[in-house]
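[Meeting: bench + compute handoff]

Bench side (C.D.) handed over the final construct sequence. Compute side (W.E.) agreed to return the predicted structure before the next meeting so the bench team could plan truncations. Sequence as handed over:
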Amino acid sequence: MQQSPPAPERISSLVPYVLILLGILLLLLASQAIISPAAQICLSIVILVCTLAVRGKSGHVGRLLMMGLSTFISLRYIFWRLLHTLEFDGWFQAFLMLTLLFAEVYSWIILFLGYMQLAWPLNRKEYPLPKDESLWPSIDVFIPTYNEDLSVVRNTVLAAKAMDWPADKLHVHLLDDGRREEFRVFADAVGVNYIVRANNLHAKAGNLNHALAHTSSELVAVFDCDHIPVKSFLTRTVGWMVQNRNISLIQTPQHFYSLDPFQRNLDISGHIPPESNLFYGLVQPGNDFWNATLFCGSCAVLRRTALDSIDGFAIETVTEDAHTSLKMQRKGWESAYLRETLAGGLATESLALHVGQRIRWARGMVQIFRTDNPLIGRGLSLGQRFCYLSAMLHFFFPIPRIIFLLAPMAFLFLGQNIIYATPLAVMTYVIPHLLQSVLTQSRMQGRWRYSVWNYVYETAIAIFLAPVVVVAFFAPKRGTFNVTAKGGLITKDYLDTRMVRPNIIMGILLILATVTGVTGMIETRAHPVLFQTYCMNLLWTSGNLLIVLAAITVGYERKQVRRAPRIAAQLDIVLYDPEGKQRYPAQTQDLSKGGLSVKATAPLPADLKLVEVHYTNRRDKISMNVPARIINLRDGLVRLEWACRDTQDETAIIEMIFGRSDAWLHWSNYSNDKPLQSLSMLARNVANLLMIIVLRRTPQV
């Protein structure tokens, strides 16, 4: 049996089931009560006051209370919509009304599943390995590649080879589905095993399964070719696999040290958490409580016997990772998630590449939903079914997102009433529902995701994913695996009109709808109900317009000419002259594979051109002495370019930059979400970026 991890919040997994079941029964009974509009307003105010009172409380109790109050108010809204707002007047109006209702019901289901999934996130701690190294398992490290540049791959290979693990039990394998001679030569030169196959059947999953058939270690660690592990990756993760032999998977976060298109193009790096932080910082710990950790294809360790029990990595869908964990959990295997950033990778460089990656994820998750639906079949607990259902249904978001953008136009352009109720009645139900869900999600998501920004992420890619989701749902066998390119360059600023054209069209429609709404308010100011209807739809349209404008600015690609991104780090180093006689203490400001910037405590001689960089980190067993050329000296800041002599120097540089245990501790250094501040920041960023795009007359492609 698995022992309880050393986390004080761990409780019996039966408790949430009992509490949730009782809560649902009470909420279902209370939420259907019919009361007057005045009573509904009073009830909403009381619940809002209660929510605000507990919002600042730390711990699980306050969060669970907020979830319960939000669920109650949202249930009242959805029951009111289903029972009191449907009145059909012709097939076209009925179609529009039911379309909006579908989007709202979907959103409520996702909200409820999210609350279930995050009811009790498990903050799992590291589990120590036995002191006797003879009890440590042997490990095969798989690094699958296809068409990536060797300059990207070699960093991961050298870092994997340098991981802290007994040399006779660590076997690194470079899996080359591109069958490239330069990769074979590199593998031979650095002493790692090179594995190729005759075809590319089943893409990445096939590549991994082929490697499984040619290796034999007890555990398998998988790293995408751009994900560089810290030296302590294995010593900090494998303890759980040794302690509990029924754990099939331990997953860690995928952290990206380069900026993704949203961070770079919206200029929000350091101010807004990256898009991936919510999943790796909160969703996966929530999954872990329910024993439903998803395998994410990289930065993970798996047990070979568990893989053998399901005939290897899943090949039925293009998201082999999540499907593999689902199949293992159906067999009764356990899973674990360690929220420690133990590897760093490259984010997608452009919006187009980001969309391509999300297309594969969406297609794969919808394929699993159709071919191996978690709600049916044996082997899964109720919590696991809900977690997987939430993950799969999430990728249907493009369709409701587009519906919500277009819905107010039904009245403003076509005069169709798609909510059969007075504006006042709508507001008495919808405003409390929205307020409660925003406040509750803000409390839950904290520093991992800020309010409103998820709408920007979704809107930027929704139009591209919508047809993929529809096709995958009705024809799940269609679609092929596509590799996400990494390590590319953007040589100039430009507006990628191909990627933003759908949202530009949407923006124009929303502007026209806004004008129509203002005109309608002026013309109907003597008719209270019509005036309120125009006002309500105008507010809805204005919010949509802000989100769409933000999505358009994501397509304004910023110049990225550094092949090796610079990483901020303050490390104490010593610079020596070539003879080793003069010593110059310094501190690094940033590091990259190409060079580093340092601040010296004393001025360096003007004629000094070459130095030796000394760095020691006893905790991580890192000791380096690598030459570097001085490129620039200004105001005490010294810019250096590495002058590697061999792969040993290259490995030392990689260890210094990427191998430190604390290399990525900053990934969660964000303050808790403040919804109004988040909305204000979004509005300011959009205004500033639109000015830049217009005034610079940015070239378009």
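W.E. noted at the follow-up: Residues 218 and 651 are 27 Å apart (CA to CA). C.D. will use this when planning the next construct.
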